[in-house]
Design a protein that fits this description.
Length: 173
């Protein structure tokens, strides 16, 4: 999924492509792409700098952080990124990060890795704590049953075993 920058000859061009889910590697720890990914953006060229402004639409499958069930998360994200040629670190010393630094990426060999761009957009679109629904009840801490499917037979009261001797004193008198 590489964008060859040497093929961009004008100051503005349009790029539209649909990628099949199989084009993306599966990452069982975070998400899986389960539907075709529509990527569309405008490429603006200014000498050796490029600006990509567009939109990505996809459907991801991820696990709920409470009940661990898989569920689908729709992605409809816009992006506006600047790309500059990768240069060696000139050792300018420390400096404060500016707003423009957050939207700037680098390319090498006249190619932009669109796979990396898409992965970034997917990670940015996912919630920090993914939930299959707002009222997800999660798992029983004792038996591990999914409480969204019904109650389990576990005892809800906990007694401290260190205090069991005191309980016997109370019942004897």
């Amino acid at each position: 999924m590489l964008l060859n920058l040497s093929h961009i000859r004008t100051a503005h061009e349009r790029f539209d492509k649909v990628y099949e889910p199989e084009a993306f590697p599966t990452d069982p720890d975070s998400f899986q792409v389960v539907a075709p990914v529509a990527l569309g953006f405008d490429v603006y060229r200014d000498k050796d700098q490029f600006r990509l402004a567009g939109r990505v639409q996809a459907t991801l499958e991820t696990s709920c952080s409470r009940c661990l069930e898989a569920y689908r998360w729709p992605v409809d994200a816009t992006f506006d990124l600047r790309y500059q040629p990768h240069a060696a670190n000139s050792g300018e010393g420390e400096r404060q990060i500016e707003e423009d630094d957050l939207t700037t990426a680098f390319y090498e060999n006249d190619q932009i890795d669109l796979g990396q761009l898409l992965r970034e957009q997917f990670y940015l679109a996912l919630p920090m704590k993914p939930l299959c629904r707002d009222d997800c009840r999660g798992l029983c801490p004792a038996c591990g049953a999914n409480l969204n499917h019904g109650q389990c037979a576990c005892k809800t009261e906990w007694e401290d075993p260190r205090l069991a001797v005191l309980k016997t004193l109370k019942t004897e008198h």
